Amino acid sequence: MSHYLRLCTFLVPFFFSGLLITPAFAQPAAKKQLEIEDLTQWNNITSNRISADGRWVVYTLDSEDGDPTTIVYDGQKNEDHTFERADDFQISYDGQFVAFLIHPAEDTVKDMRRRKVDKNALPGDTLAILSLTDQQLTRIPEVKNFKMPEKWDGWIAYLTVESMPADTSEAKRPKKAKKKNYERLVIRNLKSGRETIVDKVESYELAEKGSAIAWVTEGQDSTVAPGVYRLDPNAGKIQPVYNGKGKFKNLTFDEMGSQLAFVGDLDTTKVRVRPFGLFHYGPGKTTADLVLESGTGIMESGWTVSEHARLRFSENGGKLFFGLAPPPILPDTSLLEEEIPQVEVWSTGDGRLYTQQEVQLNRDKRQAYTAVLDTRSGQLAKLGSLEIPDVDVGDEGNAAVALGSSDLPYEKMVSWVGDTYYDLYRIDVNTGRQRKLDLVAKGNPNVSPRAKYFYWYSDPDSVWMAYSLADDRLRQITSSEVSIFYDELNDRPMHPSSYRLAGWLADDAAVLLYDRYDIWQIDPSGSRAPKRLTRGRENGISYRYVRLDPEQRFIEPNAKILLYQFDDATKESGYAWMDLASGKLDVIQQGAYSLDRRPLKAEKAEKYVYTKEDFRTFPDLIYGSGLKDGRTISNANPQQSEFSWGNVELYEWTSLDGEVLQGLLVKPDNFDPNKEYPLIVNFYERSSDGLYSHRAPQAHRSTINYSYYVSRGYVIFNPDIPYRIGYPGESCYNAVIPGVTSLIDEGFIDRDRIGVQGHSWGGYQIAYLVTKTDLFRCAEAGAPVVNMISAYGGIRWGSGMSRMFQYEHTQSRIGGTLWEYPLRYLENSPIFSVDKINTPVLIMHNDEDGAVPWYQGIEFFTAMRRLDKKAWMLNYNGEPHWPLKLANRKDFQKRMSQYFDYYLLDGPLPSWMERGVPAIEKGILQGY
């Protein structure tokens, strides 16, 4: 069996605050092993932003079991300003202020909760406003939320929670007077501190680019009437937009803040169907117009303006898009509860399974159909309908033509295919006239940026299609004769997916599409031949476009664009600038590390923030004038230097099918090839592309933590697995087992101390492996499918979908129905070979699993129990496919560590493994 090791070198940064001189005979302190409690102390950078002028970088450090910290970095002075218990920050557009929330200490709140303090008495958040010019900090207590303008500056708006004493007069004094809380809106000038205060505010909104703020208030005494108000804070005058009692929602400005729209219910009766209408306010108006009332105009009887649909102005402000809601289905309130039959009626004629309908019930109740108001002429048009639920208007809402799409005729096929098709409609935005196109999109349809084309990737044909609105013509715009634009490594019994697209050139002149390695410029009109922009295939390097401007709609044809590049063989990554006009490629950096795929660029300056990582190096923030020689500005986890860590290598071997495979091999620090180490094998499908990914300690929900186990002296092997359709279990065996035996032949693995761990699809494969081999001393299989026959007809409770598509076409890879390939379902189901298992198995399967029915874990466990084989099952009550609650994740990691330590390190036998944890002890005695 041929195999070899490829060693990858890592550079580890060290940070010195001073020079420490030690005697020559002094020995370095021994590195510590990671413990379970350490897993929740590691910081992540949960958010980071750069100011528009590029001077300031703000980011938040947060661990799973602690308070967040926000750090404001001054790129000009190379200084940090640190704020404990702070997050949810925003930077003012002029880069002169940062605002954030300071939370009460987590330990303090927990202590108050233990003392049963009323939740209304718990401390609230404090708004902090930091002046970046002089570092003065203003604190405002009991703030619920705040907003800063996106594209204008000088102001901040926030809600505080105020208390108003109850009426305590003799006639109305209750036994115990209570306070009534309400919300106060404060609009504050950041420089002068001048404030505008409005009481009893229900909601508020800021315009994106123009200085405008709007709010809804209940009113205050006789001085302020209830209704909707608008303020230009620079002008300082509050304008009533609409005065009157009612419920007003969805305040929405146009881009410049000159127009305002909202929905409102003016009915003061207790009518069950609330008659929301559409209101519009704009230049020249003294009050908002009620432009559409329930059941009038373009609406059928019983329809209303949707209170749930998003309002949206077109970019040029000429159109206002809103939603229409059909009459709701109301229960008969005259019936008592016991008089109402509670029955589910399932019908094979339903487009969606009843379970899907249940999962999507809230969506169905909020379903709205697109309509539009011409804000200049006042003309209304209905664009969507019951038959056309989805409408997409291109050119940021400016286009005269919209794409209507409907998958309603094809809903059933989702159950066994997993995907769906769409009927397409061409809709006139001005009149609402709909024309069904004589074609079906066998993929998700989209509108090009300037709305000249409808386009999609056609899954069954594995090609890109474009429908020209100018000549009503459908064209196939890619061909395998030019390049392969579909997934070359697809090993599932389904149509291969695309490699997606980079974007469109200006004026829809061309679309930039990816193949496995390169970027192609494709003319959707068919007038010009395809043009390959990069030359990656020859060297096995893939290029992908990096969009530095999050608001960018299209790419200028002569632009200089940033590309992310990745080497398939070495797994190295890099950045390169490409000049689209000349085709020149300028590689900025490339190396044995993983670079940030979404670097940040300042809006108004050539300043960048990105990360660089490998197994040993945390992705700290790097700041600079380019994307090569920046300065590392964060040090999220300095404690890492105290712990034993490890290194990762790319390992290759030959499978039983004769294919050379790759995998990740992680070794402890001070690895000695003459020693024998315990091995844990962990896998899913293919993972080797993540060679340079940093794996920070965490209490993971489903897998072992590599840093933790390597710190404790384990070696970890993560093999890639290619699959043969119809034989997923055998494919796993043919890839994994020779990889493990190849490592044993190297001489540094203890063949009697090998464990295996995986979850979901990984859990299934492990269940299969232990029926075929005794190579593993112990195994942990999370949420495993062990009986493909019973699972095939089951439900994915998280989505309500049938599980059929998964076995016929996607991950389970059987390739057909139970009736076509009954033997494949039988042969790939571990449950029928449980009697062959000699390996102890730890199963984790939760009773609210919405992906894999938890009765699969029960089938596995009860079969092992019936055959008197060693098995344990962990069921975290109320948890889904994996435990989410921190206490449960820590518990899972602790038990799994004890389990592997017992079998692979001769660790102590914990009580829960020896005698279980009886129901009477649940939640009281953990049995650790």
From TrEMBL:
InterPro entries annotated for this entry? Answer: 6-blade_b-propeller_TolB-like, AB_hydrolase_fold, Peptidase_S9_cat
GO molecular function, a single term: serine-type endopeptidase activity
Annotated signal sequence is 1-26
Q: Which residues form the Peptidase S9 prolyl oligopeptidase catalytic domain?
A: 729-904
For this protein, the record's Gene3D superfamilies field holds: alpha/beta hydrolase, TolB, C-terminal domain
Q: Which UniProt keywords apply?
A: Hydrolase, Signal
Cite a single GO BP annotation: proteolysis
- Asked whether the UniProt record includes Hydrolase among its keywords, one would answer yes
One Pfam family linked to the record: Peptidase_S9
Protein name per UniProt: Peptidase S9
Taxonomic path: Bacteria, Pseudomonadati, Bacteroidota, Saprospiria, Saprospirales
